Automatic annotation (TrEMBL):
TM region positions: 21-41, 286-307, 334-361, 381-402
A Pfam family that the UniProt record links to this protein: FtsX
Subcellular location: Cell membrane
Taxonomy, superkingdom: Bacteria
Signal sequence, renumbered to the chain: none
Matching InterPro entries: ABC3_permease_C, MacB_PCD, Macrolide_Exporter_MacB
Keyword list, A-Z: Cell membrane, Membrane, Transmembrane, Transmembrane helix
Annotated MacB-like periplasmic core domain residues: 20-241
Record domain ABC3 transporter permease C-terminal: where: 293-408
Keyword field contains Membrane: yes
Name the record gives this protein: ABC transporter permease
Annotated membrane topology: Multi-pass membrane protein
Amino acid sequence: MLANYIKIAWKVLLRHPFYTFITLFGISLTLTVLMLLTSFLDHLIGAHYPETKRDRTLYVERMVMSDSTAHSMMSGPMSFKFLNDYAKTLKTAERAAIFSYFNGSNAYVGSQKIKLNITFSDADFWRVADFDFVEGKPFNEQNIKNGDYVAVITDNFKKQYFSNSDEPVVGKNVEIENINYKVLGVVKGSPITRPFTHADIYFPYTAPKSNYQNTGMRGNFIAMILAKSKGDLKTVQSEFQSQIGRIPLPGMQGDFKYSELEVRSDPYLEHFIMTILNGGPGLKNIFYGVIGFIMLMVMGLPAINLVNLNVGRILERASEIGVRKAFGAPIKTLMWQFIVENVFITFIGGTIALILTYILINIINASGWIAYADLAINLQVFSVSIAVCLVFGLLSGVLPALRMSKLSIIEALKS
């Protein structure tokens, strides 16, 4: 029976080519936009290179200090010492990486200035993040202990800095702000949309200007805490918060007296939401609500237009409906037929949208608009796309089917 419904739907599509073009154009355009949005969201918050362990990583980015009146506060990254004392010492974690936010610097090749983003990190940074080394290796604990002037650079910076980028550069020097650093390794870069791992050059935290010697609580370092498994995240998070809870209050940070101290350790999605919306209770639900509303508007409005088109298409077949009703076809059977037909048409539009999305994603990745962009149609994006096609087909097919079911046999045969 299902195969017959699909054959009928195909014949209906061939009956009016222009109408079919308009229908499929509307469906495919809508679904292409939705698939691109889904792919970009997956690019932002999914576990991708080099942060492939996001599903078992906690991100520690900000310390918030408030006075007793809650009218004055200080917030920002922490000192290396603070994170070394409270993140590195966790017994339930596999390891913790301490590193700085990327910040600006310059390199010069002749008279040409190269703008750079640089990061200072410990050796565990390379164990928590999974970078692909094109050449060489990362710096290790011994390099840090020795205070070696070494660096790991990206393949893009290599092309900009060295005249012959086809030759190996491990062991060569790069001059950054009048200091020579020996290149230990070359990695494929991380997109700027992954700010925890993005940089052009990575230095040991003992390199000049990292300010790792700061003995206070505030500084310019953040951390990624890696749990042994996804199921251990809550345990690690609880231990970290317990450590923070033992810090004596009130305290002094410079001239500022604080009576409340908050240092969050969140999985990436929660961290992302809190960062975008600047924190607060219930914001995760609000974020999901806003995303859902946008998806509904993008999908709902075209669905309404498609409903109108489908009503017209079904009414054109009123005589067919009348004959089938006269021969005893139940309403449920007729409704099921038209819903299946509409879902079939929607999946054709979805196939077109999938092809368009694949082409557009390749264009975006190759364009350089986002350096090292790796948008893709992976299993998650594909699954969401299939679900969207199904929902879209049902949304635009149920109402016309209900309208059709109300037609009496006499009215249908007169049409």
